[in-house]
Amino acid sequence: MEYKIEKKKAPGRKDVEVLGATFEEGKPEGEELGKWRQKLESREEKLKYLQSGERYWYGKDWYGSEKRKNPA
Amino acid sequence: MAEAETKSIDNASIKMIEKAAADGANTAFDRAETMKPCPIGAEGTCCKNCGMGPCRVPLPKGKEETPKEKKERRGICGATAETIAARNFIRMIAGGAAAHSDHGRGVAKLFLAVAKGEAPGYEIKDEQKLLQLALDFGVTIGDRSNNEIAIDIGEKALAEFGKQEGEVLFLRRAPLKRQELWRREGIAPRGIDREIVEIMHRTHIGVDQDYRSLLRQGVRASIADGWGGSMIATELQDILFGTPAPVLGRINLGVLKRDEVNLIIHGHEPLLSEMIVVAAQEPQMIELAKSKGANGISIAGMCCTANEILMRHGVPLAGNFLQQELAIVTGAVDVMVVDIQCIMQSLTTVAECYHTKIITTSPKAHIPGAIHIEFDEHNAMESARAIVRTAIENFPNRGSNIDIPKEQTNLVAGFSHETINYLLGGIYRASYRPLNDNIINGRIRGVAGVVGCNNARVKHNENHVTMVKELIKNDVLVLQTGCSAIACAEAGLMTPEAAEYAGEGLASVCEAVGIPPVLHLGSCVDNSRILMAATAMVKDGGLGDDISELPVAGAAPEWMSEKAISIGQYFVGSGVFTVFGATWPTLGSPEVTEFLFKDLENICGGMWAFEPNPIKAAHLMIDHIDKKRKALGIDKARERILYDMAMRRELEAA
Ligand code: SF4
């Protein structure tokens, strides 16, 4: 995905650049309500999601609370 | 109070219990009245494992047992009450683990047939879950087709059942500390079938006669269920039928339709019912139904098959275990098709009072008096069409004695672990972080898994609903499966509006995320999803390194099946404090009970408790959650005032 950079005013400073929202606009409706897995279309996207979204098991370098340990 | 009102809290069920009495249909509610449980068997101190027995070794009533009496309290073979109670208990685990795991095996066989192109009508629906399992099982992905990958996964999954050495593969999904504990304690299961068979061997006359050793084997077999057979069933079903995502459904007997053909799908496997759902939508079937005077075909589910098709298709759910006979009593069910598990043999007898046809479909589950249309995965659509046709043909045979209760409730189902992860963070930041943060900051006190059956010995649905309301009132987020989920959905606890029953903290989180305070995770094999959710909470960090450190608890307040004992034992074996209601099957041996309720905590980090009063049981869970919060050092957070945006603005304006 592409990250959007937004300019915001910060108190006591000039404009700052912040990372914009990453959620999709609008609300799902009708049949599509709740069906989120279809959004991942290609195999690459799906594998990437496993590595990021399901990183607790499939992330290469991130084990959450177990980060500091050797994998069993 | 009318008599029926003492038997259920659900109005639709009360009406049908009354109608059954008027129609002369004998139900489980009547039988529970006329037949009391055997007090010796209920406490686990009756053994019939050999032809010298049955031997009954009950605790003396109303007096302390002398050491001499205790020494003499044995079976003919010399087995003590401890041995007998422990054997009985782990044979229940074997029965439950076998049921879940054989279900898993059935799914794995179908899965392999689909991968090989030998099961027309089925397909791989969730490629992402397929890839996930390929990573779990070490199957090469590369440029291979989904079917090629699936063949390898199917073969590896099937091999898990008959594996003799090593470890069940999904154990690797558990927190690292948990895996180490299982290995250290010698309770990591080697293969699924092996541990179940070993229970049967150890409990044969004259084999394992130390209750501690017997009970440890019970833990090992139960882990083979939760992290093995059940998890395989859940994961492969997700690949074949789709990983559940939130879906709006309706529930209770009011979903039956007076003017349409009513076909109820009951049992536990979604394999055939998925096809029935498709067959019932075929234009020629709808035409046939119209030619018989019906306005359409209405499919409704019952028990866990219902949970499966509800969360994937939004198919309405007619009720839970104790409502299966009552659905027929409406007089409006044209066919009830059943697969496996929790199907009352009396369905055919109740059906004799009405026009309903009972169809059995599993080669493993026949019932005299039922029609048998065997499910054949190679020709599933044909079996499905034959069943739908039978229902349509039976529509004109309905009698005039029809009464469909109007009660039905909305619910949101389909909260798989993957969906919870997604809902909490979105597609780019899926995460359990918001849940953990809200537990740490105290808005959510903890998480409870409330699962399990109905039990005709307790008021239908009462314990489930009372316990869950008490938990959410105290800011405990509740995850549910099975008949317990159905009970709470019927009581309206599975819609976002149910946040009104929740404590302020939990309600605020539910509102922000847009989820109900009580989440429906699926059928009883889907308790494996609760294990995954708990593991994700551990791995996300901030709440300890193991499931046993989390502020979580489990319960089955109306349990009755051996499967529930296996589930409870794998919750405990995974580190969760678990409270059962209704009855407890080892009370005849204080030593065995003590081992399960206390000593197991030193081995597994989790332990059992028994408390029939649902409010007291909920407070045992809350106390345990608070104990874990204290150990994590997050107990103070709950006392802090949490400022939301509105409060901050007010402060600034002041
Ligand atoms: S195994 Fe022992 S306790 Fe059980 S029935 Fe036989 S003799 Fe009695």
Which CATH class of the largest domain in chain B? Alpha Beta
Helix content of chain B: 40-55%
**Number of DSSP helical runs of chain A:** 2
The major beta sheet of chain A can be summarized as:
2 strands, antiparallel
Please work out how many helical segments of chain B DSSP would assign.
Answer: 26
Approximately how much beta-strand content do the residues of chain B carry?
A: 5-15%
Task: Please identify the structural class of chain B as seen in this structure.
Answer: alpha/beta
As for the number of domains of chain B, it is 4
Would you kindly provide a written description of the structure presented here, covering whatever features stand out?
- The complex is a heterodimer of chains A (72) and B (654).
- With 72 residues, chain A is α+β, with helices and mostly antiparallel strands.
- Chain A contains two helices and two strands; from the N terminus they run ββαα.
- Chain A has a two-stranded antiparallel ribbon.
- In chain A, a hairpin with a 5-residue loop joins strand 1 and strand 2 (15-19).
- The radius of gyration of chain B is 25 Å and the shape is globular.
- In chain B, helix 5 packs antiparallel against helix 7, helix 6 (127-137) packs across helix 7 (146-162) and helix 10 packs across helix 22.
- Chain B has four domains: 2-66, no CATH class; 81-241, Substrate Binding Domain Of Dnak, Chain:A, Domain 2, CATH 1.20.1270.30; 253-397, Rossmann fold (3-Layer(aba) Sandwich), CATH 3.40.50; 417-632, Rossmann fold, CATH 3.40.50.2030.
- Chain B is built from 26 helices and 16 strands.
- Chain B is an alpha/beta fold and 654 residues long.
- The interface between A and B is large, with 30 and 43 residues.
